[in-house]
Specification:
single chain; alpha+beta; 3 helices; three-stranded mixed beta sheet
């Protein structure tokens, strides 16, 4: 854990991010008047392969989504010149 004041964090922001990215630090505490006000931590990587198909079997939809209210279909497919 690293503790820096606001001016130092602003000046060395890229370096602080690199330290987190390279796992040299687990978190950076940013202080104002020697009091902690924020914590900078690395993002956890999300495995996007697990997101695909997450709702499989949970959603219900009609077999033919175009079947339905004829009035709505007319509004979309019939045009009136104004």
């Amino acid at each position: 854990m690293c503790q820096v004041n606001i001016l130092e964090a602003k000046t060395n922001f890229s370096k602080l991010l690199m330290m987190l990215e390279l796992k040299q630090e687990s978190e950076v505490i940013i202080c104002k008047n020697n009091k902690p006000v924020a914590k900078l931590v690395p993002m956890e990587k999300v495995d996007v392969s697990k997101r695909l198909g997450i709702a499989k079997g949970k959603l219900k939809y009609p077999i033919n989504i175009n079947d339905g209210d004829e009035e709505i279909a007319k509004m979309f497919y019939e045009s009136e010149d104004i």
